[in-house]
Every structure is written in C-alpha cells, then in structure tokens.
C-alpha cells in the first residue's frame, strides 16, 4: 500500500523545500540552469518560491477559481544573497496552509483532482524537479528518494492530459502503441496510446518501445525532460519514444 497521503505529501514537500534552499545557499545565483533554458539560479529560485507562496495562498483561501500568480506579492528580498533564506521560509508557509485543510476539501486546481490534496502532491514534485534543476546547474548529481520518484512519475502522466493548450500534447494519440518506462529498482509504468489520448498504469511489461533506467529517480528526470533518453537503455521503436518526449512537455 502506498504511504502517500495528503499529510505525507505535505511533510515531504517541506523537506524538499529546505533541501533545495540548502543546495543554492552560498552559490553564484547567476549560474545558468541548462534544464530551464534562459533561466539562471536566481530565476529558478524565485519561480519555485513564488509557486510555493501562490499554492499556500490558494489553499489557505480554498480558492474556487484560478488566481493569477503574477498579481500576488511573493515578498522577494532585494538582495539575491537572501534568496535561499526566502526560499526556505516558504516551507512553513506552505505547510501551514496545507496542514490547515483536509486533503479531501474541494477547491480549484489545474489538475483533474480538484481537492486540497492535489496541491500537496503537486508542490512536492514541483520542488523535487526544480531542486534537481539547481543541482544539475551546479554540476551535482541529483539524488531522489525512490518512493517519491515513483509517485512523481505517476503524477507526471496524470498531469500531461491537463495541458491541452500545448499543441504537442493534443497529438499524443495512437492505435494501441505502448511505451514502457522501467526502473531497475522495480518501479515501472506502461503508457498505451488510444485514439482519444493515452492511458497509463503500473506495469513491468515491455512495450512497443521500452526505456530502462537505473532508478525511479532517473525515470522521473527522464519523463520531465531533465535527462535525455540517450543516457538509458532503449529497446524497440526508439522513434516512438522520441516522438513522445518531444510532445509530452508540461
């Protein structure tokens, strides 16, 4: 049985925020972030911390409609040297909002699960991926807890159909072709393309194309476009995998 609950996602998100703040503390925030083209570390930090505060605002008020993040003041400090501390301060702000609401409480979310619990899960994986972005920018090797990564991969496939404003996502259809995503640690998912879109499920089966990574953490970085498929073992129709990766972008 999965350990993931609203409370568990909330606690894990707070830990990841603190961890990301520690990664960037004392670093040159003008360093470019290759996995987020056009951003430097300062922009990565301000984006991530801003999203945490936006999510806290929405959850605290149980927002029933979209609120534009650009209209909120994130309280960003004037000096870049204070950005890591500001990022870390987002952990108790976000946790306080999430802990103050039951996970099953209805509210607006851009995902399919329009409840408070969607936000605790989303903020965990938002932070995990952006912490990895920071580490990659600094020449570090991201390490991601395997259970966290496995949940993050499943969440990614849940999210993709919700970004229909992207032309590529609307093209993710087929006639039964399958893409198998397998981690050496045992985590695996199977995507099946249908005329209406795609379905995904936990599975260890091979597919029309199968990609194998060493860990679920590497699988998470692959689906989010942080590592290329060339870093891993690809069996079968490599063109199908490349086609998917070019379109399944959030």
Order of helices and strands: HHHHHHEEEEHEH
How large a portion of the residues is in β-strands, by DSSP E?
Answer: 5-15%
Any idea what the radius of gyration is?
18 Å
Question: What's the CATH class label of the largest domain?
Answer: Mainly Alpha
Beginning-to-end CA distance, first to last residue: 28 Å
Low-confidence spans: none
Class computed from helices, strands and strand pairing:
alpha+beta
Count of helix runs: 8
Plain-language structure description:
- The chain has 250 residues and is α+β, with helices and mostly antiparallel strands.
- The protein folds into two domains: 6-143, Four Helix Bundle (Hemerythrin (Met), subunit A) (Up-down Bundle), CATH 1.20.120; 150-247, SCP2 sterol-binding domain (Nonspecific Lipid-transfer Protein, Chain A, 2-Layer Sandwich), CATH 3.30.1050.
- It has eight helices and five strands, in the order ααααααββββαβα.
- The chain has helices at 6-24, 41-60, 83-99, 116-137, 146-159, 167-170, 216-223, 238-247, and strands at 178-183, 188-194, 197-202, 209-213, 233-236.
- The chain has a five-stranded mixed β-sheet.
- The model has no long low-confidence stretch (mean pLDDT 96).
Which helices and strands appear, and what pairs or packs with what?
Blueprint: H1 6-24, H2 41-60, H3 83-99, H4 116-137, H5 146-159, H6 167-170, E1 178-183, E2 188-194, E3 197-202, E4 209-213, H7 216-223, E5 233-236, H8 238-247
Parallel strand pairs: 1-4
Antiparallel strand pairs: 1-2, 2-3, 4-5
Helix pairs in contact: 1-3, 1-4, 2-3, 2-4, 5-7
Features:
250 residues; 2 domains; alpha+beta; 8 helices
């Amino acid at each position: 049985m999965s350990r993931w609950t609203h409370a568990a996602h909330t606690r894990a998100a707070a830990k990841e925020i603190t961890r990301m703040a520690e990664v960037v503390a004392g670093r040159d925030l003008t360093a470019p972030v290759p996995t987020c083209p056009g951003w430097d570390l300062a922009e990565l930090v301000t984006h991530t911390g801003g999203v945490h505060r936006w999510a806290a605002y929405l959850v605290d008020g149980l927002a029933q409609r979209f609120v534009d993040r650009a209209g909120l003041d994130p309280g960003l400090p004037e000096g870049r040297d204070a950005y890591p501390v500001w990022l870390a301060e987002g952990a108790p702000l976000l946790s306080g909002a999430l802990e103050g609401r039951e996970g099953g409480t209805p509210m607006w979310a851009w995902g399919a699960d329009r409840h408070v619990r969607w936000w605790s899960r989303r903020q965990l994986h938002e932070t995990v991926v952006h912490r990895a972005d920071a580490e990659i920018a600094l020449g570090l090797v991201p390490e991601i807890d395997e259970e966290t990564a496995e949940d993050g991969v499943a969440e990614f496939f849940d999210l993709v159909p919700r970004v229909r404003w992207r032309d590529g996502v609307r093209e993710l259809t087929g006639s039964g072709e399958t893409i198998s995503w397998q981690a050496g640690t045992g985590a695996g998912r199977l995507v099946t393309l249908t005329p209406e879109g795609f379905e995904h499920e936990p599975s260890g089966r091979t597919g029309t194309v199968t990609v194998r990574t060493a860990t679920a953490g590497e699988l998470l970085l692959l689906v989010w476009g942080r590592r290329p498929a060339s870093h891993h073992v690809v069996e079968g129709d490599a063109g199908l995998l490349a086609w998917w990766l070019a379109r399944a972008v959030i």
